[in-house]
Amino acid sequence: MNLKILPILCSLLAINVAGQLPGPGTETVHSIAHVKAGHEAEYAKLSGNAWALYKRLGVVLDHPHVVLRGTDEKGLPYFVEIFTWKSPDIPDHAPPEIKAIWQQLEQACERRDGRPGIDFAPVTPLDLD
Fold first, then answer.
1. What CATH number does the domain containing 87 carry?
2. What is the pLDDT of residue 11?
3. Looking at residue 129, what is its pLDDT?
4. C-alpha to C-alpha distance for 16 and 25, rounded to whole angstroms
5. Residue 87 sits in which domain range?
6. Which pLDDT score, from 0 to 100, does residue 125 have?
7. What dihedral angle (degrees, nearest 10) is formed by the CA atoms of 42, 58, 117, 8?
8. pTM for this entry
9. Is residue 87 a part of any domain in this protein?
């Protein structure tokens, strides 16, 4: 991850969730998608479709949800997304609909600098007020 964007992400997350921190039993994650050059529009559309699917299936909280698009030092595109699963078990037991869209998202991405196409990590939202 480009550590230069970490303070920006933290600020956006804090603004988005002020007074609305996820409760116990949830899992907030951030992902970095190393999108293939020329596939940015495809990835953005698929990401929006994935979010709509998560909402329809009731597996995510409305907030926090932040999506950012950037370009790394090599000029290659990436997307960062922060959201909260209603349960940490959901990704490991995702229904086939979700697994199918994950495959489509992965196809628009590439391994980069030894990292997978889409790199997920759990994070903890902070109330900075």
1. 3.30.70.100
2. 46
3. 72
4. 20
5. 29-123
6. 86
7. 90
8. 0.82
9. yes
Cα 50 to Cα 77: distance, rounded to the nearest angstrom: 19
Location of structure tokens 């970490």? 6
86 domain-assigned: yes
| Per-residue three-class SS string for the chain | CCHHHHHHHHHHHHHHHCCCCCCCCCEEEEEEECECCCCHHHHHHHHHHHHHHHHHHCCEEEEEEEEEEEECCCCCEEEEEEEEECCCCCHHHCCHHHHHHHHHHHHCECCECCECCEEEEEECCCCCC
* pLDDT for the residue 8: 47
Query: Which residues in the chain come in under a pLDDT of 70?
Result: 1-20
Q: Is residue 4 assigned to a domain?
A: no
Distance between start and end Cα atoms, the chain: 26
Domains held by the chain: number: 1
Residue 49 is assigned to a structural domain of this protein: yes
